C-alpha cells in the first residue's frame, strides 16, 4: 500500500524560486524558514492528518439526540491542529495569529486539505466565519467570539442555502425580527440546508453566520442581512449558556466527504433563536462574500491538493505494480498518463500558489486585486474540475484496486466532486468570470494578463518551439473566442454569451496554467546551470511538465474556442 | 423526485429507421413487433428493475458462512427476468431461446442494464459463460449445464484475474491436474480475485469458467486451459450434490456496483475441487475470449445505458427545478450541458446498436466481422469513459442534490467507473485497437470505414456546412495522426506508437459517433417531409444532436490528434 508523500521539492520551488515569497519582508521569512515550515507542516500532515483519512470516511457522521458526532479520530487531530499553531498560521497578530506570506499559508493549507478534505472543512469554515467576524464585526463580536474561535474552542459555519434557494440565494425565506429592548439582536426563523459542519462535537459551540431577511428587507439579495447565531447562547462572562433553538434535524448521505457533517439546520422552531446583526442591515450578501471568495479559493485548493496527493500515491503504485514482467510505469500508456497527471497537478498548484501570493502583491500594486478577481473563478472551477479528472485517472492507473475502497484512491473521486458544485457551481463561476471579470471592463484586466503572458513568451528559447507554437495558437483562438463573445454581448444576444462562458473559462484557465508552468520551466532552466546532479533531475521535470501540459492539455483549449465560435445559434431555440 | 423514463422514440428510430433491423428476415420481426417488444421491455424495466436500483446499492452484499447473500429485492427481479423470457431473448432456438435481431436484443439489454447495472451483471455473466459452454462445450456440458442455466436455476461467472495477474493474464498461477480414471476432469487449485458474481444466492449453483494451467502448459497465455468448475458438484441425475471446494473468502468494498458481489474465490483449498476441461487443452485463452469480447461490448453498454438514464432523469430535474424565477433548463449554460449530454448519450446509443446490428450484417457480408473487430474496443473504451463523463455532468446539473445519495444520480458516477477498468482497461483497449485492428492490416479496414464516412458526407446538404467542415477537419487530422503512428511503427519506435494509442482511439471514436449521428440526421431530415408536427419535434432533435456533437464534442478530436503528433519524444525518456 502506498504511503503518504508530498511533492515538497515542487512546493518549495514554487514558493522560493518562482514566487520568491521572502520578498514580502514584513513577514520576516527567508527561503530557509519557508522550507522549515513546509517540512514541519508536511510532518504534521503525514503523522496526524493522513492516517485519519480513510477511517473517518468509513465512519461518516452520526446524528444523535445530542447533536452530530464526528469520527472519533478527528478529535485528536483537530486538537493538535490548533495546539501546534497550524490554525493560527497566516492570521493577524492582533488576534493572536502568526502572520506569514500568503503563498506559504496556502501551501500549508493545501497539504492538510489534500490529506483529509472532509476534516479540513471544520477548521476551514470556522476560519472563513471568523474572518467575517474579525473584519466587519463590532467590539462585542470581536471580543466575545473571535478569541474562542482562535483557540479552537468554538467552530463556525456559513448558512446560505435553503431548499428553494440554492444558487439563487436572493430567494431565501429565513427571517430576522428585531427583539425589542435588545439592541442588535433578532429572532431568527428558518431552515437552512446543505450546511457543512452545521453541527458537530469537535467544538464546544458552533457559531453560525446566517443570512436572513429583516422586516424591511426588500425581495432579492439586496434585502438580506447577516447574523451571528450561536448554537448555545453565550453568557455575559463568555461561557456557553442554554440552547439557542438551533437544531440539526438531518444529515445528508453523500457521494463523498462522508466525515463532513452536511446538515439541515432549523433555526427558531420554538421561536427561541436569537441572532446578532453583523455588519450593516441589508449588507448581508456583500459581507457573506468575504467568506464566499475565500471559500471559492478553498474549493480550488480542494481539487488541487487532493489531485496532488492522488498523483503521489499513484506514482508509487505504478512503480511497484508488476504486470508483463515489468513495473507498469514502464508501459508507455501508463507513463504518459502519469506525466499528464503530474503536469496538471503541478499546474494547478502553480495557479493556486500564484493566486495566494497575489494577496501579498496587492499590498504593493492594486492591479493585483483585479488579477485575484479574474483568478478566483478560474481557481475554483478549473482546479476542482481538473482535480477531479486527475483523481479519476488515479483510479484508472490502479486498475481494479483503484475501484476498491481499501486503497483509498476512489475516495478522491468521491471527495473532490463536491468542489465543482458548492460555493457557486462551476457554471456560475464561468458566468462570473465572463460577465463580471471580462465584459465589465471590456477585457482590460484580461488583456493585461495576456500581455504578461506574451512578455514571458519572449524569454522562450528555440528548444521550446513546440510549446511556443501551441501557446501562440491557443492565445490566437482565445482572442477570436473573446471577440465572438464581445460582439454578441454588444448586440445583446446574451443567450449566446452565456452558453459560451464555461468553455471560455476553461480555455483561459488552460492558458493561465501554461503560463505559470512556462515561468517555472524558464526558472528551472536558469537554475540548471548551477545545479548539482540531483537538483537537475527535478529541474528537468519542470521542462517536461511544461511540454506535456502544452501538448496534451492546452491543445484542448483550441477545441473550447472552436466549441464557442461554431455554435452561432442560441441553444434556447433547441428543444430538449 | 424524477421518475423512470427512457428515450423510446430514439431507440425505435435507431432500430427501425436507421438500422432497419427487420431486414434480417430470418427472425420474422417487422417494425411493429420491434416496437411492441421495446415497449414491453421498457415496462418491465420501469416496474421491476428500476425500483431495485438504489435499495440494492444501499444493501450491498453480505458474506455469510453459507456464502454471499445479495440484496433481497434482487431475488424477485431475477426470477421475473427469466420467467418473462427476457433472459432467453436473442438465444438460439435449440437451447430454448427466442431468436431476435441483434439490435433489438441489445436495445432491450441496454434498458435493463441502465436501470440496475449491478444486478444486470448476474444474468449478464451467466449468459457469457453459457455462450462459451454452448459454443465449445461437449455434449456433457451442453446437456448438463446449459438447460439449468437457460432456466435461471444456475448462474455463471468468468474467473481470470489473480492477485499478480490482472491485465497480464498469462502470469496466472492456478493449476489443473488430471484426475486419474476420470476422463476430462482435473483437480483445480488456485485463488482468483475480483470475480464478479463469484458467489451469490440468486442461483442454486454457480458455474465458474476458470483459467488454469495444466502440468504440460507452458508459461504465458499459450499454456492456459479453460475449465467448468461448479460451486456444488453435479450428480449424475443433474441435481446439485456436495460442495466442490470452491469458497468465497472475501467480498470487495467498492466505489460502486455495491449490489454486485466481487469475490475472492479459493479453489481447492482442501484439494477437493474438480473442474471439467472445456474446449481443447491450451486453448483456454481463445475460448475465454468468446466471453471477453461479449463482456467488452457489455462494458460499453454499461456506460451507454446508464448515461442515457442519467440524462433522462436530469432532463426532468432541470425542467422542474426553479432558480432565479425560472426552471433551470432556461439558463443557457444548463441547457447547453443538457444538449451536450443528449448528443453524447444518443451518440453512444447509435454506436452500440450499430455494432450489435453488425453481428446480423456479418451473416450477409463477412467484412462486417472486421468492423466488429474495430468497433469492439471503441465501444468498450469510449462508451464507458464518455458514459462516465455524462454521469458526472448529471450530478453537476443536479447541484447539491446530485451529490446526495437520495437522488440516485451520484450512483451512476460510482457504478459506471468500473466499466473503464474491467474486461481490459481502456488503455489496453486502445492498444488492441491500434496494434491489432489498425496496424496489423495497414489500416485497411479503418480506411474502408473512412470511405463509408466520406460517402455518407456526400449526402450532406449546405445547411450542414458547419458540421461538414468540422468533420472534414477531424478526418484530416486523424489521417495525419495515423500516418505519424504508422511511420513510427515502421521505424520500430514502439514507445511512441504505444503512447499514442489512447488518443487515437478517442479521436477515431469521435469520428465514428459523428458518422452515426450524421446518418441519423440525414434519415431524420428525409422523414421530416412526411412527418406530422409531433414527429417533427423529435426529428428536429436529431439534427440538433448532430450539430451539438460535431461542434462541441468532435472538436476535441483535433486536440487528440495534436496531442499525438506534437509529442515526438518517447515518454520513457522522461523521469517521473
Strands, helices and their partners?
The structure is a homodimer of 576-residue chains.
Chain A: H1 8-18, H2 31-49, H3 53-59, E1 62-64, E2 67-69, H4 73-83, H5 102-115, H6 117-136, H7 139-144, H8 146-150, E3 154-159, E4 175-178, E5 185-196, E6 205-213, E7 224-230, E8 232-234, E9 240-243, E10 246-251, E11 262-267, E12 274-277, H9 284-320, E13 322-323, E14 326-327, H10 332-364, H11 367-398, H12 400-403, H13 410-417, H14 426-438, H15 444-458, H16 465-490, H17 494-528, H18 533-565
Parallel strand pairs in A: 3-6
Antiparallel strand pairs in A: 1-2, 4-5, 5-11, 5-12, 6-7, 7-12, 8-9, 10-11, 13-14
Describe the structure.
The structure is a homodimer of 576-residue chains. Chain A is of the alpha+beta class and 576 residues long. Among the domains of chain A are: 131 residues, Butyryl-CoA Dehydrogenase, subunit A, domain 2; 146 residues. Helix content of chain A is 57%, strand content 12%. Chain A has 18 helices and 14 strands. In chain A, the strands form four sheets. In chain A, strands 3, 4, 5, 6, 7, 10, 11 and 12 form an eight-stranded mixed β-sheet that branches. In chain A, strands 1-2 form a two-stranded antiparallel sheet. In chain A, α1 packs parallel to α10 and α5 runs antiparallel to α6. In chain A, 59% of the residues are buried. Chains A and B meet through β13, α10, α11, α12 and α13 of A and β13, α10, α11, α12 and α13 of B.
Question: Which key terms come to mind for this protein?
Answer:
576 residues, 18 helices, two-stranded antiparallel sheet, homodimer, globular, alpha+beta, Butyryl-CoA Dehydrogenase, subunit A, domain 2, eight-stranded mixed β-sheet
Amino acid at each position: 500500500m502506498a504511503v503518504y508523500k508530498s511533492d515538497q521539492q515542487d512546493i518549495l520551488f514554487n514558493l522560493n524560486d518562482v514566487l520568491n515569497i521572502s520578498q514580502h519582508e514584513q513577514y520576516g521569512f527567508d527561503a530557509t524558514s519557508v522550507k522549515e515550515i513546509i517540512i514541519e507542516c508536511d510532518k504534521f500532515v503525514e503523522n496526524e492528518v493522513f492516517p485519519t483519512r480513510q477511517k473517518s470516511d468509513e465512519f461518516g457522521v452520526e446524528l444523535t439526540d445530542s447533536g452530530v458526532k464526528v469520527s472519533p479520530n478527528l478529535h485528536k487531530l483537530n486538537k493538535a491542529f490548533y495546539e501546534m499553531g497550524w490554525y493560527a498560521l497566516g492570521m493577524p497578530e492582533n488576534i493572536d495569529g502568526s502572520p506569514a506570506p500568503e503563498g506559504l499559508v496556502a501551501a500549508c493549507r493545501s497539504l492538510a486539505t489534500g490529506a483529509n478534505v472532509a476534516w479540513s472543512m471544520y477548521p476551514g469554515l470556522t476560519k472563513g466565519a471568523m474572518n467575517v467576524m474579525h473584519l466587519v464585526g463590532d467590539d462585542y463580536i470581536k471580543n466575545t467570539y473571535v478569541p474562542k474561535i482562535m483557540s479552537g474552542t468554538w467552530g463556525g459555519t456559513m448558512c446560505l442555502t435553503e431548499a428553494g434557494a440554492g444558487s439563487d440565494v436572493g430567494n431565501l425565506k429565513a427571517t430576522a425580527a428585531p427583539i425589542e429592548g435588545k439592541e442588535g439582536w433578532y429572532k431568527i426563523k428558518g431552515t437552512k440546508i446543505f450546511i457543512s459542519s452545521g453541527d458537530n462535537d469537535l467544538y464546544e459551540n458552533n457559531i453560525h453566520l446566517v443570512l436572513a431577511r429583516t422586516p424591511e428587507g426588500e425581495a432579492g439579495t439586496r434585502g438580506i442581512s447577516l447574523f451571528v447565531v450561536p448554537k448555545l447562547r453565550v453568557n455575559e462572562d463568555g461561557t456557553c449558556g442554554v440552547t439557542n433553538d438551533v437544531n440539526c434535524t438531518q444529515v445528508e448521505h453523500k457521494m463523498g466527504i462522508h466525515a463532513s457533517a452536511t446538515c439541515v439546520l432549523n433555526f427558531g422552531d420554538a421561536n427561541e433563536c436569537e441572532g446578532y446583526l453583523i455588519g450593516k442591515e441589508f449588507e448581508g450578501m456583500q459581507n457573506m462574500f468575504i467568506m464566499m471568495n475565500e471559500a471559492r479559493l478553498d474549493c480550488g485548493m480542494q481539487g488541487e491538493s487532493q489531485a496532488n496527493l492522488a498523483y503521489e500515491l499513484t506514482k508509487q503504485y505504478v512503480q511497484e505494480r508488476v504486470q508483463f514482467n515489468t513495473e507498469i510505469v514502464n508501459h508507455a500508456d501508463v507513463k504518459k498518463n502519469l506525466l499528464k497527471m503530474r503536469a496538471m497537478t503541478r499546474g494547478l498548484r502553480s495557479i493556486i500558489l500564484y493566486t495566494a501570493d497575489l494577496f501579498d502583491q496587492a499590498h504593493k500594486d492594486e492591479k493585483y486585486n483585479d488579477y485575484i478577481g479574474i483568478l478566483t473563478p478560474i481557481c475554483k472551477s478549473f482546479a476542482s474540475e481538473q482535480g477531479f479528472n486527475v483523481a479519476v485517472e488515479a483510479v484508472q492507473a490502479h486498475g481494479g484496486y483503484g475501484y476498491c475502497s481499501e486503497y483509498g484512491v476512489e475516495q478522491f473521486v468521491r471527495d473532490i466532486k463536491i468542489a465543482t458544485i458548492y460555493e457557486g457551481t462551476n457554471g456560475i463561476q464561468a458566468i462570473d468570470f465572463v460577465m463580471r471579470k471580462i465584459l465589465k471592463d471590456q477585457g482590460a484586466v484580461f488583456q493585461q494578463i495576456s500581455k504578461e503572458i506574451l512578455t514571458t513568451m519572449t524569454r522562450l528559447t528555440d528548444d521550446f518551439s513546440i510549446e511556443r507554437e501551441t501557446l501562440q495558437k491557443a492565445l490566437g483562438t482565445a482572442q477570436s473566442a473573446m471577440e465572438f463573445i464581445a460582439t454578441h454581448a454588444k448586440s445583446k444576444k446574451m443567450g449566446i454569451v452565456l452558453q459560451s462562458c464555461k468553455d471560455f473559462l476553461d480555455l483561459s484557465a488552460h492558458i493561465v496554467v501554461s503560463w505559470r508552468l512556462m515561468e517555472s520551466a524558464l526558472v528551472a532552466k536558469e537554475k540548471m546551470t548551477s545545479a548539482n546532479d540531483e537538483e537537475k533531475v527535478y529541474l528537468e521535470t519542470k521542462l517536461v511538465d511544461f511540454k506535456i501540459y502544452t501538448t496534451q492539455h492546452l491543445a484542448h483549449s483550441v477545441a473550447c474556442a472552436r466549441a464557442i465560435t461554431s455554435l452561432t445559434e442560441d441553444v434556447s431555440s433547441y428543444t430538449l
